[in-house]
Amino acid sequence: MATAHSNLGRCIESSLQSQDSVRSDESRVRSTGPMGSWESELTSIQHALKFVLALKDEFVCPVCRGVVLNPQQNSCGHIYCFHCLQGLLEMSPPSGPVCPVDGAVVTPAEVFQDNCCKREISNLEVYCTNFPACTSVVTLHRLQDHLSSCPYEQLQCFNVGCRAALQRRHLQEHLSSTCPHRTEPCPHCQQPLPLSLIQDHVLTSCPDVEVHCPSSCSQKLPRHKGQRARVKLHEDAAVNHHMLLVLKSNTHLEQQRQQEVQTDGSLLDGLQQEVRPLLQQTSNHERIICTAQLEVQQVSRALGPGLEELEQLRKSLDAVIQEVSETEALKEHLGTLEENLKRHSGLLDLHAAQLHRNKQHLQELEATSYDGRLIWKIDDFSRRRDAEVRGQRRRV
Ligand SMILES: [Zn+2]
Ligand SMILES: [Zn+2]
Ligand SMILES: [Zn+2]
Ligand SMILES: [Zn+2]
Ligand SMILES: [Zn+2]
Ligand SMILES: [Zn+2]
């Protein structure tokens, strides 16, 4: 890294002068400094600058590595851009700001504007920033002037609402014929208006557009310009014409009304004709309903006695059912009795057989030749025998 000491030597006079001014009013330099100077306008393109000759190291800022803009020289002899020096002072460590090249302390009171370097740098030749489209070569301090008229400089269309960006050489055509937000004169009143509003203006408010006469005659009148006076004039001149129009309109309305009345009358006739058969049908239906009601009454009258009979029959049927169930019970009882009878007659048969055997035995005994008297010693023998025959239990 070279220093600016050689420059200091060559330009000692001017440097000393500026040093005095910086020292005498340090706060002014630090707060306003080079604001508005050509250097401050180049800050944004500082690193895009292309110099015709290679930039000398001594003109490269050790802080931002760009060409030094508005050089400020420290006591160590190094120069920095004005805005880079501001940065050094603001972001310094607690021990105080130091030169980034050699670590020398930066004392604001000893820093001065290096007008000698400033002059040399301002005269360096630089290509236009629109190179290669623009081949102009200018000195650095003239670059901003050139850019303000360079035909290749990119510009924003300045019509409100348009975001197009074009080179200066194309801007004029865009503004006058292709920008959708351009201003054009109204074809009727020549008032300049944004293109998008002209149609609405012509339809609703352009004073020179002709509109129909408010009395609906075929004539046209300008919309606003002296409108009232012109309408009055026209109305006075065309009063007969307007009266005729009113008369014609009234006649037409009257004809329409008569036609409507006729149409209504014929509609009414048609409706009446349709209603008549309906009324006839209704009376027929009423007659049918009366007949049906009579028939219903007769039928219910004829049914009356039959219903009573039916009721009696049902009662007697109930009685019969009752009797049948009683008979069933009796039959069951009869069955039991029959069984008893069978059992008794069986027993009776057994007794009769036993009796028969006894009788035979007796006859055998009688026929046997004992002393007959022993047998007949049984008391009441003949009575007991009779009882046996009748079925009583044997007592022998
Ligand atoms: Zn230094
Ligand atoms: Zn710098
Ligand atoms: Zn240019
Ligand atoms: Zn535009
Ligand atoms: Zn107009
Ligand atoms: Zn009219």
Structure, explained:
- This protein is mostly helical and 396 residues long.
- Among the domains are: 5-147, Herpes Virus-1; 155-239, no CATH class.
- Helices cover 56% and strands 8% of the residues.
- The chain has twelve helices and eleven strands.
- The protein has helices at residues 5-10, 12-24, 26-31, 38-42, 82-90, 115-122, 143-147, 168-178, 195-204, 227-237, 239-367, 381-390; strands spanning 72-73, 79-80, 112-113, 125-127, 137-139, 154-156, 165-167, 183-185, 192-194, 210-212, 220-222.
- Strands 2-1-3 form a three-stranded antiparallel sheet.
- A hairpin with an 8-residue loop joins strand 6 and strand 7 (165-167).
- The longest helix is centred in the last third of the chain and has 129 residues, at 239-367.
- The chain is elongated and about 200 Å long.
- It binds zinc ion (6 copies).
- One zinc ion (ZN) is lined by residues 186, 188-189, 191, 201, 206, 208.
- The site of one zinc ion has 8 residues, from loops.
Q: Which descriptors apply to this entry?
A:
single chain; 396 residues; mainly alpha; Herpes Virus-1; three-stranded antiparallel sheet; two-stranded antiparallel ribbon; 12 helices; 11 strands; 56% helix; 8% strand; elongated; disordered N terminus; binds zinc ion; zinc-finger; cytoplasm; zinc ion binding; receptor; TRAF-like
Helices, strands, pairings?
Blueprint: H1 5-10, H2 12-24, H3 26-31, H4 38-42, E1 72-73, E2 79-80, H5 82-90, E3 112-113, H6 115-122, E4 125-127, E5 137-139, H7 143-147, E6 154-156, E7 165-167, H8 168-178, E8 183-185, E9 192-194, H9 195-204, E10 210-212, E11 220-222, H10 227-237, H11 239-367, H12 381-390
Antiparallel strand pairs: 1-2, 1-3, 4-5, 6-7, 8-9, 10-11
The structure holds zinc ion (6 copies).
